[in-house]
Every structure is written in structure tokens, then in C-alpha cells.
Design brief:
CATH architecture of the largest domain: 2-Layer Sandwich
Shape: globular
Strand content: 25-35%
CATH superfamily of the largest domain: DNA ligase/mRNA capping enzyme
Distance between the termini: 47 Å
């Protein structure tokens, strides 16, 4: 049975009033007609650059950082396509989002957003989203997921990627109902002081916030136009082995993790918390099929089992030790290959430690 859709947890100001986006504005009827642009089959997504502090000033807007799968929703006369960050077609896996997109009343559009499943407190839960899809490599469809749309890249035959974010948001707010309850909702701009907003987000157990420059066009990659400021850090790491345990349920005491350095793998520590007995049993079965006598990292241990670098884990952690290992890591789940998860580059460790 499909559960009632939950609203996301609101952020509150000091008076405990819900923070609201700017009021929705009507489109300008005098906007000049522009020549039609061909609709791209895919747009390289703009990615947020991790920063330790919140930027300030009128040129920045803030949103909640959602914890799910990045998707582009292509609305065309012949139907809707849902494309992952890596360019894979996942339309069949998100039928409720696809159905909601057809009801937006637009002929052609490309929405940029994040598919999430909300927990009982209204927070995005990456593990719940994975379970709704049947786990890594699963073929289930997600009925519980919804899309938080935060950008509009194409509309009614016009390519919007070269226009500034403020214009794109203006058009998006007209297209996606504000404070809606459907499977496509607006990721609202939060009008609040950045420092206080981050504190509030962290107190509510959210992952963090996103800061975006209002005056910039939409550019693929990590350009610095979008920044992510996290309450707790979370990155993707390659599983290169596991430590056997006779006492732990599932037979896995911890997972051995590595980051990327050029074409090589560099050990960044192990994680032994965050996975259930069921997770451990699945991981052991999957990893035992990948066993190798040629470790991807230089590491020795009597109970270590090394595997081919194939499975990517999302890890939540509290920072880095000075010898380059993760501090207080916790396992969140496996990333899909189709999600094009970028394994953490260890050259970024030094800047993370210095910050």
C-alpha cells in the first residue's frame, strides 16, 4: 500500500514561523519572443563545490541540501524522460514523478532536481530511497519518491542555460506550484541569514544547505557557482575489501575504503557502523564474488579480505585525521553505477583538513 506523501520538514525562524520562498511572480507578457532552440538530449549538470563556511551577500540564495538521486526531467510532446546525472534513462523507475511532470501544463521543459524519499520527520533519507528502488542493482519502481525541482534549463522551445539563475528561478516558480503536495515540488529559496540557516538545518538533522549565485548562467561541473555547506560530511568511496569478524552479524566487521588519486587507489580508513545485519549479509555475498589476490591498496591484516574495486559506498563522516583517514565514518548505502557517483579525490583531503 502506498503511504501518504509527507511534506518536507520546514525550517523555522526565531519566532518559530515557517521560512517561505519569495512570492510567486507572473511571467512578463512583454518578454520578447526569442527564436526556438533545439531541445538538448542531455545537459551536463551543475555540481556544488564543498565549502566549510556559508557565503554571504545579496548575490547568494540558499536552499536545503537534499540527499537523494540527481535527476533531469525532460518534458516533451511525446512524453516524459527521467535522466540520471550519468545520462541513464530511469523513467520506468520513477513513475509517480513522471506522471506528476505531465501535469505541469507545459509542452517542453527540462527540470533539474533531486529525487528523495522523506522520513517520518520530513527529512530526505538516502537509505529509504535506495530501499524503495530495491537496493543497489534493484529493479523496483519507487512509488514513495518525489522530486524537489531547483532549476529550469529549457522551457517552451527556449534554452535557458545562458540566462542567470534569478531568471530561471522566476520561471520555475511559475511552473511548479509553491507549497505543493504532489510528486514534483519546488525546492524553495530560504530567505534567512546564512549562518543561522545552517545552524537551524543542522539542529533539525538535515544534511546541510546549498548556496547559489543569483547572477550566473547554468554551467556543468563544479564551477563554484553553486556551493554546498554540510552539517556532516558525506562522500563516495570505493570498497576495496572488508575485515572478517566471527562475532559481527553477517561476518563483516568493517569495510575497507579508498579514494581516488589519478589512476590509483589510496586507503582512507574503514567503516564498521551504519549497516544492519541484512546490509552486512548482502555486502558479504556481493564482495565475496569480487575477491582478489591483488589488493587495490597497500594494506596488511590477518582478517582482511581484498576485493576488486567495483562497489561504491556513500559514507558519512566528521572530518579527516592528519594522516588522511576518515573520522567517525558511518555507512549510508551503495551508490548505483548509473548514478555516476564520483569517488572522492584524495587530493582534496589537505584542503579539507586545513579548513
Amino acid at each position: 500500500m502506498m503511504r501518504p506523501r509527507r511534506r518536507s520538514l520546514p525550517l523555522l525562524d526565531k519566532s518559530h514561523s515557517t521560512l517561505q520562498s519569495r512570492p510567486m511572480r507572473k511571467r512578463d507578457p512583454d518578454q520578447p519572443s526569442l527564436p526556438f532552440d533545439p531541445m538538448p538530449s542531455r545537459v551536463e549538470p551543475c555540481l556544488a563545490l564543498l565549502k566549510p563556511t556559508v557565503p554571504f551577500g545579496p548575490h547568494w540564495l540558499y536552499e536545503v541540501k537534499w540527499d537523494g538521486y540527481r535527476l533531469a526531467i525532460h518534458i516533451e510532446p511525446k512524453g516524459v524522460r527521467i535522466i540520471t546525472r550519468g545520462g541513464h534513462d530511469w523513467t520506468p523507475r520513477f513513475p509517480t514523478i513522471a506522471a506528476a511532470a505531465t501535469q505541469l501544463g507545459v509542452t517542453t521543459a527540462i527540470l533539474d532536481g533531486e529525487a528523495v524519499v522523506l522520513d517520518e520527520q520530513g527529512r530526505s533519507d538516502f537509505g529509504a530511497l535506495q530501499r524503495s528502488l530495491g537496493g543497489r542493482g534493484g529493479k523496483r519502481v519507487s512509488q514513495e519518491s518525489l522530486l524537489y525541482a531547483f532549476d529550469l534549463l529549457y522551457l517552451d522551445g527556449h534554452d535557458l542555460t545562458q540566462t542567470e539563475l534569478a531568471v530561471r528561478r522566476h520561471l520555475l516558480e511559475d511552473l511548479v506550484p509553491e507549497a505543493g503536495s504532489g510528486a514534483v515540488q519546488l525546492s524553495e529559496e530560504l530567505k534567512f541569514d546564512g549562518r543561522q540557516l545552517l545552524d537551524q538545518a543542522c539542529n533539525l538533522g538535515l544534511e546541510g544547505i546549498i548556496a547559489k549565485h543569483r547572477d550566473r548562467p547554468y554551467r556543468g561541473g563544479r564551477t563554484g557557482d553553486w556551493l554546498k555547506i554540510k552539517c556532516v560530511q558525506s562522500e563516495s568511496f570505493m570498497i576495496v575489501g572488508y575485515e572478517q569478524s566471527a562475532s559481527a552479524r553477517g561476518g563483516i566487521g568493517s569495510l575497507l575504503l579508498a579514494g581516488r588519486q589519478g589512476c590509483d587507489w589510496v586507503y582512507v580508513g574503514s567503516v564498521g557502523t551504519g549497516f544492519s545485519a541484512k546490509d552486512a549479509e548482502y555486502l558479504k555475498r556481493a564482495l565475496d564474488q569480487l575477491r582478489t589476490n591483488k589488493p587495490a591498496v597497500s594494506l596488511k591484516g590477518k582478517r582482511f579480505v581484498f576485493v576488486q574495486p567495483t562497489l561504491i559506498a556513500e559514507i558519512e563522516f566528521r572530518g579527516w585525521t592528519h594522516d588522511g583517514n576518515l573520522r567517525h565514518p558511518s555507512y549510508k548505502g551503495l551508490r548505483e553505477v548509473q548514478d555516476n557517483a564520483a569517488v572522492f579525490n584524495v587530493t582534496d583531503i589537505h584542503s579539507a583538513i586545513d579548513s
